[in-house]
């Protein structure tokens, strides 16, 4: 790997890596009603925290995860966004517990609690639960939505090199230009915004309003991103030709991600997870220097203080975002299917049929478990049901000993 770079080239590559992750990092907060500038700021700070915990050895960038869109929308509707921020802290708690268990017992317990027959349906539900949102946003202007969607598809299908890693940015850019030509972009906010300004939640910090309901609501979703994290560390290890699972250790990477999520909650940003897009960029450029990723993080923080940029992002028409979402959310569901296919989940076995069918029915059907003021529903309830069924139903020795291949990023 070519990591012996001058400071100038490291800076150029670091900025380039941010553009690879930029689309997903700012799109997620736009969809749930959070400030995209804050998301950039918290992604940058979270990445630096991660690098501090992992001794600066692991070249990973942390950014907003699509996995949390559905539960955030649900929690914000029921309990408000400030209370939902406490749910982000719940995500951090899951990572902390996993980190402690990995330090104590290794990774085997993860495979036992979260096998593909549990993780796969959870990921499928994350994608399916968002499909209605994508269609509703696209309805405002189907032409714009289809143009944005087609551009993303063309980039994914025909582009090469780094350009293939930015289908979201390309789709939004072309959709935005078409919207401008149609005269449906409101530039008022951009004109009134200052050139430089701290993100609102950073300039006017407000602590999360702790509420255990969103805390519990978001914790089960962290199970999917937790497995995603493990897979990404293995992938990055292969790309960099180093064993980061042993040094600095998977428990450290998990702890770093958890602390980054906790910091994001207090900064008003969404939970952050490892980004495979940046890993793909490292594989193409053959540059795996952690210092370059830290430059990417600092660049994200620098971009977050451009007031005009934040206003521009918030001026993107809903139909443009909806068109991108039509592909992205379907892709999330197919990742769950791919995970089960790759791990050869045998659906001729009654056990697997029972687990998957009950999880999908519970999640799609909107089942809710209520006890007093406590309630658990949707994807969270489906995940808990899947874990219980997996532990309760008998399995063959072949299933217990089969190595698990980690899922790709959401």
Which features would summarize this protein structure in a list?
mainly alpha, two-stranded antiparallel ribbon, 21 helices, two-stranded antiparallel sheet, 410 residues, 71% helix
Measure the end-to-end span: 27 Å
Largest sheet: 2 strands, antiparallel
Strand order of the largest sheet: 1-2
Number of beta strands: 4
Shape: globular
Beta content comes to: under 5%
Number of helices: 21
| Structural class estimated from helices and strands | mainly alpha
Question: What radius of gyration results from the CA coordinates?
Answer: 21 Å
Order of helices and strands: HHEHHHHHHHHHHHHEHHHHHEEHH
Written overview of the protein:
By secondary structure, the chain is mainly alpha-helical. Helix content is 71%, strand content 3%. The strands form two sheets. Strands 1-2 form a two-stranded antiparallel sheet. It has a two-stranded antiparallel sheet with strand order 3-4. A hairpin with a 2-residue loop joins strand 3 (368-371) and strand 4 (374-377). Helix 6 (116-129) runs parallel beside helix 19 (350-365) and helix 13 runs parallel beside helix 15 (276-285).
Outline:
The chain is mainly α. It is built from 21 helices and 4 strands. The protein has helices at 7-32, 36-53, 69-79, 81-105, 108-113, 116-129, 131-138, 142-158, 167-181, 188-192, 200-203, 212-218, 221-240, 245-267, 276-285, 290-304, 307-314, 318-342, 350-365, 378-392, 397-401, and strands at residues 62-64, 272-274, 368-371, 374-377.
